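input
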Amino acid sequence: MRGMDKLQDVIELLKKYNQEHIIEFMNTLDEKEKENLENQILQIDFHQLLELYDNTKKKVEIKENKIEEIKYIDKQKMGNSKKEQLENLANDIIATGKYAVVTMAGGQGTRLEHTGPKGTFKLDVYGKGKYLFEILTDNLKEANKKYSVTIPWYIMTSEENHENTLDFLEKHNYFGYDKNYVMLFKQGELPLLTLDGKLMIGKNKLIKLASDGNGGTFASLRLSGALADMKERGIKWVFIGGVDNVLLKMVDPILLGFAIEKNVKIASKSIVKANPHEKVGVFCNMNGHPKVIEYSELPEKMAEEVDKDGELKYGESHIMCNLFTIDAIEEISKQPLIYHSAKKKIPYIDINGKEVIPNEPNAYKFEAFIFDAFTFFDDIAILRGKREEDFAPVKNKEGVDSPKTAKELYEKYWG
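output
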C-alpha cells in the first residue's frame, strides 16, 4: 500500500470508530514513528473492539434453572486395581511419545513484587531455593525417567516477557532439559480501552496492548506454529497448566487414563472448595455443556447448596490443570471465545507525549479464559484431586497463595 493511501485508510478507520485523538497524536510523530503506528492500527480489529466495549455495559446473568452439578470421580476413593487400569491406558500414550505439555508463563511477578517473568521467581525451598521454571522442569524430568521418553514442552510467553524468559532459560541451560524438546511461543494481545472506549498510547508511541488472557492459548498455539510442531511429532494429548502452581502434575496418568476411558476430548483436575465462598471458579453443567462459573457470577444460594452426602453441589474448583486432545485444541483455536473485561490502572501517554499515572482504574483489559472453551464440548472427565497434593499456587506476596504457603505445601509433599 502506498504511503498516502495507507495514511488515508488509517484516518478513515480512526474516524469511523471515534478515535480522532489518535489522528491528533500522529501529527506529533516523526515519519518512522508514524509508519509504525499506522501499521499497528491496520492490524487492529476495530469491529471486535467495539463489541467488547459494548459488552462492558451488559450485566452477566446466570439463569439458575439451566445449571446442574457436574459428575466427577475422586482419586482418593479409587481402588488400586482401577488406578492400575487407568495408568495402563495412559501408558500407551505417554511412553510412545504422543503426549506434550504447555506451560502458560506470560505473566510478570508484579503481585509478588518480583521483577521479571513469573517463572523466574525463586521459591525459598530447602534453604537454597528453586525457580518456578526449575520446579516444573523437575516434574517433567521425573516423568521422562518413568516413561523413558522426552516429553515436548511448549512455553507460552508474552510480548512483554518473551526475551527475558528466553535469556533466563538459556542462562540456566533449561535446567538440564533437552532444548530440542522446548519451544517458546507468544501469547496474543488486544488493545486496552479507556472507560469511555478510547484507545490508549504507550511510552513506545504505539497503541497500548495487553495479553488476551489464558483463553488465547489455543489460537496462539495455532498461529505460532506450535500446534503444527505437535502434529509433526505425532502428539495426541496435550496438558495445559500455569507456571505458578508448585504442586502441578503435568503428567498425571490417572487423569489421562480417565479421559481415554470416558472417551472425551477434554479433562480437568479439580479440588474441593475450602468453603462455599472461596474465590474460585467452579465446574457445573450449563445447558448440557461443561462450564466453569466464576465465583463472582455464582448466585449465593447455589454456592451454599449441598447434596445428599452433605458435600457442596458446586464445590469442584478449577485449578488450571487441563488436558485436551490435539483435535480439541485445533477445534477451539478456530472459534472465538467469550471475552471478559476487567478494570485496571493503566499508565499512558497523553496527546502532548506526557506520561499519566492514574490513581483509579482507568481502562478495560479484555481477556478470554481457558475454561470458556469447555462449552464447545458435550462432556468432560473431571478427576477430583487433593489440595495438599495438587494445588500450591504462588500468586500473592503475603497471606493466601503466597510464597510462604507454597513453600510449606511443597516441602510437606516432597518431604
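quick obs: The chain has 14 helices and 20 strands.
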